[in-house]
Each structure stands twice: as C-alpha cells, then as structure tokens.
Amino acid sequence: MTAVVEARGLAKSYGATRALDGVSFTVEPGRIVGLIGPNGAGKTSALKAILGLTSFEGELKVLGLDPRWQRNELMREVCFMADVAVLPRWLRVAQALEFVAGVHPRFDRSVAAGFLGKTDIRMDSRVGQLSKGMVTQLHLALILAIDARFLVLDEPTLGLDLLYRRQFYDTLLNDYFDKERTILLTTHQVEEVEQLFTDVIFIKHGQIALNATVEELGRRYVQLTVSADAAPRARELGPFYEREVFGRVAMFFEGRTPAELAPLGDTRTPSIADLFVARMQGARKV
Amino acid sequence: MSTTLETAGAPALAPAARGFGLANTLVMLGRRELWEHRGLWLAPLVVAGILMAACIAAILYTHPDLHAADLSWFTAEQRAAAFAGANWSLASPLYLVAFMVVFFYLCDCLYAERKDRSILFWKSLPVSDGLTVAAKFLVAALAIPLGVYVLAAVTDLLFVCFWNLFVTLGGGPQLRMWDGAAWVGAEWRQLLVVILASLWYAPIYAYLMLVSAWARRSPLLWATLPPTIAPLIEWLSFRTHYLWDFVRYRSFEIWRILGLGPMPGFAHGHHRDVASAEFGSGHFAAAFSNIDLWLGVLAAVALLYAAARIRRFRDDT
After folding, report:
1. Which of A14, B29, B170, B253 is 20 to 30 A (C-alpha) from B317?
2. How many CB atoms lie within 10 A of CB B40?
3. Of B110, B121, B131, B133, which to mutate for an interface test with A (greatest number of A Cβ within 10 Å)?
4. pLDDT at res. B137
5. Is the CB of residue B98 less than 8 Å from the CB of residue B44?
6. Min Cα–Cα distance to chain A from B231, Å
7. What's the Rg (C-alpha) of chain B?
8. CB atoms near residue B87 (< 10 Å)
9. In a domain, B36, yes or no
10. Which bin fits A29, alpha (ψ -120 to 50), beta or left (φ > 0)?
11. B106 within some domain
C-alpha cells in the first residue's frame, strides 16, 4: 500500500545553507509521527516540501502524488497548519466557517461550530479582536473539522496556555484521530505530547538522527540510573550519553537489554524528550 | 491497509453533494474579496448616496421656476440626448470612484495576503492559485463594474422619480422627464461601454495583479513607477517617446475609437457625444472588433498566468 509520505534523498538548499541534506523516510498510514529537531534543523523545510510550498531535490510522494505538480489534488486530502500561518485580522469567525464550508468539500461546519462552542470565541468577532490563543483555537477548530486523510501540524499549540494545549491534544487523539488518518506533528514541547506519538523522527542539521516507532524505541534504548560510584562500571558498557541527576548518573544505552543493566541500577525506557536531548548532545560530544 | 485507505475517502465525499462546482467556488472566492476589501462596494455606494443627496438638495434649494420654463423649442431628439446626458452625468462619478478603488484593490490583492501572512491559510484549502487569481481578477473586471452599472441605473431611476414627483407637485407637468426608449438605449450603450472598458483595461488590471504578486514591498509604487519613469528615461536618453505613446494608447485609445474624448463624460465638450447618434452601433462595432482590444485580452491572460505561477511557487514565508 502507498505510504502517506515517501521521501528519498530529499534535499533543499537556501543559498549555501543546506536545510535538508538528502533525507529519506516513510510515513505509514494510521500513524502519529513526531518530527522533532532543534530550530533550523530542517523540520519546516521538510514540511513545506511535503505540502508543495517549496521546491526541493530528490524524490517525494505524498499520498502517491507529487506535491510539486499535483498540489491541487493533494490539498483535497491533506490539511495543514503552518506555524507562521495567521488568520487575517479582517476575517469574522462566522465568515471563516462560511468560507471554508464554501470551498472545502470535506469540511463539516457543525463540527467546527462544536469546537468553537467550547471556547469563548464569538461568531461575530473579527480575528483582529481575538487573543493570540483564541486565534489558534479558531484555526484548529477549522482544521479539525476537515475530514482529511493526512494532517500536518507545525507547532500547532504555539501561544496556547497549558490548559488549552492539553485540551487540544485530547481532542486530537479522542475526537479526530482514527486508524484511517495520519498526523505529522512538530513541536518544541516534546514532554507534553510524547504519549501521543506512534513514531518519531529526529532531525538535525538537515539529516535524520533517528527514525523509529515508539515500540522500537523501547526495545532499542534503555536508560540506566546509577550512583556515582557505580558509574565507572556502567560506563564500560558503552552508554552513548550520560548526565548527572541529583548526584546520580543517568546513562543512555542502545542495543542493551534491561536485564543486562538491571544489576547496576534502575532501568527504564527513556522518555522521547530525554532521548532527543541525548541524541542531539550525545552526537555533539563525539 | 490498502482497503482502509481507499474507503476512507468514500464517506467523506458525501458533503460534495452540496455542490462544489467551479462556479460556486468562484462565487465564494469573490465574496471573500468583498469581505476583505469593503471599499470596493462601500465607496461607490457612498458616492451614489452623496450624489443623490446633492441633486435633491440642489433641486429643493434652488427652486427652479417651473412655470417659466419652456422646453417646447427642443426637438424630441435633443430631449432624448439631454435625458441620456443626465443619465451619464450621474453615472460617471460612480465609474470614476469604482475605477480608483479597483486600482488600489488590484495592487493590494496578492500582496496583502503575503504581508499579513494569511497566504498559508488560504493555501491550506483546496483552491488552486489559478482559481484564486482568476477570482480576484473577475471581481475587479466583472463584478464591480457590473455592480456599479446596476447602482448607476438605480441612482438614475431614483433621481428621475424624485424629479418627476417634484415637477408634478410644483405644477410643471410638461417638464416631466421620462423617455422609456431613450432610457433603455442609454443603459444599453452604457453597459457596452462598461464591458468595453473591462476588456480594454484587462491587461492593465492583470499587470497590477502581477506586480501585487511579485513586489516584496510597496506594490503601489512598483505599479505606478515603471509606466512613468521608463518613458521619461527613454525621452532623456533617445529623445523618443515610443513608451509614452504606448502608455497613452493603452490608457485612452479605445475612447477615441468609440468617438469619445480621452475619458467618457469628462473631457470638455464631449458630454453630448455620449448620447448622440455618433455613439451609435458603428463605433461600437469598430471598438469591439479592434485587434488591439483582443491582443490586450490575450496579454492579460498571460500576465494573470504569470501572477498565478508566482503565487504558486513563491517561497518566502
């Protein structure tokens, strides 16, 4: 079956800067993929390539379509919210609903109105009168009311406070996501959403640092926390990254089983946030 | 996996029964433009209101002596011409203001969405860049001119109604002003002029949109400087004026072909031409069959295509 995204040797340069340096990855249907990387790592370039918003080199198919030449077909199946996308200030809330309903065959106005009903947003307000968080809520209400096969969200909760962020991710998981949809999401607040992901792709300097399902992460990586005096012995087993936590040392291992490490200290599956830091800084040390 | 993905589209397509034809989408896109650029319809409405108020005030406060007036020495033809002339005098300020707001609208329409960064929102919807550009062009070249045409007709009718009411109450029934045939004739010619103007100015409209899609800042400046600076440079360097002739030709030639002055209803002494026999079918035939008119339309299509390409492939957000 066609993958939702299939990228091979995807590359993008801005002048001398290589934003994407020949990355290859696949997004399978029915997954929630976190695309995670520091600022300027190439996340946005990858998303823009996928959405047909920028030129690129290499091969890229989204839902079997070429985003460069078949963007119009693609946009019927794909929905996105770019981090820099702003709803225009002159637009009224009711007009926004009417417009999207008028041009998008898969938009369900009652669903959007339902989302908005849970907020303080009034139908006759202009976007310019809403707070930043409210604008994001409105935008998300519009996006989530579109029955798209593939949803791309670039920092969707930027500017929302914790309460709304939690609410949004609950909605995304409970009301929106099902096995027929695929979501690709970038965010800075990895800790908050790591329960959400089925897959993660770490991207760094335009290259993929890690690409795995969450189950694979559990099998591949172990975090071992040991006391300072046990550390040298654990270090012999070759952690790829370590850091000190309250006088103890947390070490991150790849390809070791918890059974192997358990005698030395406490083992657990590392969080995605920890793995991200470990991967990004670990590689920097080497 | 394949079955789930294939069937995923099927139920979702149900709302498509609401009818997402090209025409419906175009109308929605057009309405969107009128939401954003309210001046497009507000300005002509306000001017029509002011005109009406001014006319009524002029009649009421100058108290024309209806009994003393004697129009019997006018021929029927002259009366019809005066009637049609009054029609044009009311309409032309509306067209002038509409032309001005359309000019600013076209310079802004593909620039504002980049400036306020809403373009990525519009582009997240299944509306092609070509359709977006076409809709904006049709608002400027079709919807607004036709809307102002209807507004002008209504304004004229209201004015005629008021005048006739006034002269009837004032005891001058012989001054009642209505000539159905002349009115329909004048309105028909006015409609042809409106269509002709949109066709003739289409490449200028499209050029403004191209600038609007392309300019990184101040599209208004980019739109107006080249056609003024380039002829100046040409004249300073070669003492020739081909560019200036071209700009002038594209700006006014169609009105000369039609047998009008540089601008309909504005050039001194040409008011009567509008209504007179000169403004007959022969001139319209010449104007509509002018090769440069249709070459201009072709150029407009090419410029619009370029504007849509820029909107599609531009990447600076």
Report:
1. B29
2. 21
3. B121
4. 98
5. yes
6. 36
7. 24
8. 26
9. yes
10. beta
11. yes
pLDDT tens per residue, range B248-290: 999 888 888 887 654 444 444 444 444 443 445 558 888 899 9
CATH of A5-205, one of 3.30.70.270, 3.40.50.300, 3.60.20.30, 3.40.190.10: 3.40.50.300
* Cα(A253)–Cα(B74) distance, integer angstroms: 105
Cα pseudo-dihedral B127, B129, B135, B140, rounded to 10: 150
Nearest in space to B99 (alpha carbons), one of B266, B261, B281, B218: B266
Instruction: Please give the Cα distance from B227 to B250 (Å, whole number).
Output: 11
State which amino acid sits at residue B76: A
Tokens describing residue A124: 């006759």
Question: From residue A15, how far is each of A18, A240, A255, B309, B311 by CA, in Å?
Answer: 8, 34, 39, 22, 21
* pLDDT, tens digit, 9 for 90 and up, residues A9-39: 999 988 888 889 989 999 999 999 999 988 8
Kindly state whether B25 is in contact with chain A, defined as any CB-CB distance less than 8 angstroms.
yes
Residue B84 has φ and ψ, to the nearest 5°, of -65, -35
Model ipTM value: 0.87
As a whole number, the mean pLDDT across chain A is 88
- 8 Å CB contact of B13 and A108: no
- Does a structural domain hold residue B64? no
> What distances in angstroms separate CA B205 from CA A53, A282, B107, one per listed residue?
27, 58, 9
Q: With beta carbons under 8 A apart, name residues in chain A contacting B9.
A: 77, 149
> How far is it, in rounded angstroms, from Cα B125 to Cα A105?
10
Cα-Cα end-to-end distance for chain B: 36
Question: Does a structural domain hold residue B199?
Answer: yes
* Domain around B31: 24-59+74-313
Residue B182, CA distances (Å) to B78, B178, B314 in order: 11, 8, 52
In chain B, the number of structural domains is 1
- Supply φ then ψ for residue A34, to 5 degrees: -95, 125
Helical segments of A21-179, H only:
43-50, 71-77, 93-103, 109-117, 132-144, 162-171
Predicted model pTM: 0.87
| Nearest CA among A225, A239, A206 for reference residue A268 | A225
Contact list in B for residue A86 (CB cut-off 8 A) is 116-118, 120-121
Domain parsing of chain A, residue ranges: 5-205, 216-285
Residue type present at position A238: G
* The pLDDT of residue B71: 62
Judged by average pLDDT, the poorest of A26-35, A155-164, A242-251 is A155-164
At residue A73, the 3 state secondary structure works out as helix
* Structural tokens at position B226: 């080249």
Q: Is the dihedral of CA B265, B267, B272, B276 positive or negative?
A: negative
Helix (H, G, I), strand (E, B) or coil at A141: helix
Query: For residue B86, what are its two tokens?
Result: 């009054």
